[in-house]
Specification:
Layout lengths: L16 H7 L8 H4 L4 H12 L4 H8 L8 E3 L2 E4 L2 E2 L4 H10 L1
Antiparallel strand pairs: 1-2, 2-3
Helix pairs in contact: 3-5
The structure holds iron/sulfur cluster (SF4).
Length: about 100
């Protein structure tokens, strides 16, 4: 998981805590273009990773996408300008094939 856009906002983190949850992130190693995607197509690899991610809730809690105009994938959803993008039927189908 790229670290630069992830800044604690709503929650106070213990020293080093942000790195602890990020080491468990299922999207580790994906290109930034997938994690910080603007389109569903670009986001598919990250959304697939979210399906098996053990830190999904923590990801959304720390990133707080609705509070900072976030663009990209967090907590299993694609966000654009801090709002969740409603998945298209094509995205649903692609994620079901991958499951
Ligand atoms: S929930 Fe998705 S975006 Fe967040 S750390 Fe897990 S795989 Fe990455």
């Amino acid at each position: 998981m790229p670290t630069s856009p992830y800044r604690p906002s709503r929650v106070d983190l213990a020293p080093g805590e942000h790195t602890d949850w990020q080491t468990s992130a299922a999207c580790t190693g994906l290109p930034p273009s997938a994690v910080f995607a603007r389109t569903e197509r670009e986001a598919l690899p990250a959304l697939r990773a979210c399906e098996r991610c053990p830190v999904r809730a923590r990801c959304e809690e720390v990133v707080a996408p609705a509070e900072n105009w976030f663009d990209g994938v967090s907590g299993g959803r694609l966000w654009r300008n801090g709002r969740p993008v409603q998945p298209s039927s094509a995205t649903h189908a692609a994620l079901e094939v991958a499951a």
